[in-house]
Structure formats: structure tokens, C-alpha cells
Design a protein that fits this description.
Layout (H helix, E strand, L loop, with lengths): L9 H11 L7 H5 L6 H16 L3 H25 L4 H15 L21 H18 L32 H14 L7 H21 L8 H24 L4 H25 L9 H14 L8
């Protein structure tokens, strides 16, 4: 039986981080890093957390959450070294933020205070509180340079307290589209029911078809043609995200599910071709379509059959 060992703590992880960044005895790779250089690693770790959740693998999830936590510790160490912030400040700041954002749980933003037993808030009250709090937070923040203000073709300066001003520009595009739409909806800029949303999507698809017809026989990569196609394709995708939002379906989750579905079916076809010593180049399109239908039937218990 292995010797019992005490669990390491957050303080131990912070000490490890300081050791890695020690100029005399630290790790050469860690010593070379700065805030910008580890951003890609942070994004990768976040996606690996999402992947573990998608696979419902709790052991992997624990491991990936540790990797993501290490990113927070790394940034905090960098901040401490330059004197801008540290881990204590990160924890204090997020705790105060959550106390402020949950007045229906913490009276007077007191971590240890409780409302009298039987007190409750309905969903509308909580939503109204949330919108008020977020508006106050945006007003307190110094508005960053927006994408619009950096656009040389823009003829106006965006308002500093825009409800969209703090939606991160580096979010994955589909997630950012959904967040932008939700923010606009909070102030009433939204359709009231589903039919106009479907009509808008159909309208955008029709406009894309017009551009496709206009480009018939031409090179889609030609700058002017490419720009028009990109604009209209973007509008179609943006409308698809909006439709997902109205259907209460996460567009990101839906796309990940479709990616998985495609991957499994494609790999099924690969396996069938390999078993018959065949290659894709040997097959007619009709044969591949038949294999695809077989894959759909064979994997119907694993993925949806659409």
C-alpha cells in the first residue's frame, strides 16, 4: 500500500509557481513567458476543460481544471512581479464582484449574512437586478477602444457606456455573436417571437444566393467577390446564432454535437473502406452517399440521426 501523502494546497501551487519563475533556479521556459505569450495556452486549457465535460470524464475534468487553475496562478505571479496585482487581489476582486451581483442571496453584500427564512425573489426581479448591476459596472469601467472606433471607415465614435462595450472581442466568433445578441436583447433590441427570426434567416440566405449567382463563373477568391460573399455568409451565420438563441439551443453546443456526429460517421466510412481495401478515390459519390446512410443507421444510438 502506498504511503499516505497530504494534499497540496493553493498556497503550495503558488509557491511552486514562484520557484518556476525564480531567476536563479527556475525553469528557463517559464522565465521567458509574459502575459501575452501564455494566452494561447489559457485558451487551449479552457477548451480541454470543455472537452472533458463533453466526454463526461470526471477524472480528466479534474486534471484539466488543475491546468486551467495553473494559468490563473501564472498570470497572478506575473502581476505580482510587476506590482500590478496578485492572487489575493484576484480572489478578493471576484468575491466582491459575486457578492455585488447576487443581492438576492447576500444582504448588503455581506458574505455571511442571510435573508430571513422564507424570503425569495422571482426571476423577473433577479433579472432586473442583474441588468442594473451590469449597467453600473460598465459605467465604472473605462471603456476600451472598440472595434468600431478602430475602423477607418467608421464615421462616428461609439458611446462609452455601450451595453456591448465589454463583450470580449477575442471570444470565439459564434460565442461572441450569441453574447452580443443577448446584450442587445436586454435593452429591447430583439424580435418578440420566432417567425420574424426565421424570416430574417431566409432573407439572409436569399441575399447570399444573389451574390453567388452574381459571382457565377468567376473566381470566388477575387477580392471584391470574396468580400461580398464573406459579408453575406457572415449575416447568414449571425442569423443562425439568433435562431439558436430563440430555440434555447446553445449554438456552440449544437455545432460541437454536429462536429462529433460528422467525425463518427466519417470514421465509420474510413473503417468500411479499409476493411474492403478501398480508398475514397476508388468510390463514386453515390457509393459514398450510400455508406454515409449506412453510417447514420449504424450509429443512430451514438449520435442523433439527422
Amino acid at each position: 500500500m502506498a504511503d499516505w501523502q497530504p494534499q497540496y494546497s493553493l498556497a503550495d501551487l503558488q509557491f511552486l509557481m514562484r520557484r518556476l519563475r525564480d531567476p536563479e533556479s527556475g525553469c528557463p521556459w517559464d522565465l521567458k513567458q509574459d502575459f501575452k505569450s501564455i494566452v494561447s495556452h489559457t485558451l487551449e486549457e479552457a477548451y480541454e476543460v470543455a472537452d472533458a465535460i463533453e466526454r463526461e470524464n470526471k477524472h480528466d475534468l479534474m486534471d484539466e481544471l488543475g491546468d486551467l487553475l495553473f494559468q490563473v496562478v501564472f498570470y497572478s505571479q506575473l502581476g505580482a512581479e510587476e506590482g500590478s496585482f496578485d492572487m489575493g487581489g484576484v480572489i478578493d476582486n471576484v468575491t466582491r464582484k459575486l457578492l455585488r451581483r447576487h443581492p438576492h442571496v447576500f444582504p448588503n453584500q455581506d458574505l455571511h449574512a442571510y435573508f430571513p427564512q422564507g424570503s425569495n425573489f422571482n426571476d423577473d426581479e433577479i433579472k432586473a437586478q442583474w441588468e442594473t448591476i451590469k449597467a453600473q459596472e460598465r459605467a465604472l469601467k473605462k471603456a476600451p477602444q472598440s472595434e468600431v472606433s478602430n475602423n477607418p471607415t467608421s464615421s462616428f465614435n461609439p458611446v462609452e457606456d455601450s451595453v456591448l462595450s465589454d463583450v470580449p472581442s477575442l471570444l470565439p466568433s459564434m460565442n461572441r455573436a450569441e453574447k452580443l445578441q443577448k446584450r442587445a436583447s436586454q435593452v429591447g433590441f430583439d424580435w418578440q417571437d420566432l417567425p420574424p427570426v426565421l424570416e430574417k434567416l431566409e432573407e439572409e440566405i436569399a441575399e447570399l444566393k444573389v451574390e453567388i449567382l452574381a459571382a457565377k463563373g468567376k473566381d470566388f477568391r477575387a477580392p471584391e467577390i470574396h468580400q461580398r460573399l464573406q459579408d453575406e455568409m457572415g449575416d447568414v451565420l449571425f442569423s443562425c446564432v439568433n435562431l439558436s438563441r430563440f430555440l434555447k439551443v446553445s449554438p456552440d453546443a449544437a455545432m460541437r454535437a454536429s462536429n462529433l456526429k460528422f467525425t463518427l460517421r466519417f470514421q465509420y466510412i474510413e473503417a468500411q473502406l479499409k476493411a474492403n481495401n478501398s480508398q475514397f478515390s476508388d468510390m463514386r459519390l453515390a457509393d459514398l452517399e450510400a455508406l454515409w446512410e449506412t453510417a447514420k443507421q449504424s450509429l443512430s444510438g451514438t449520435v442523433s440521426s439527422s
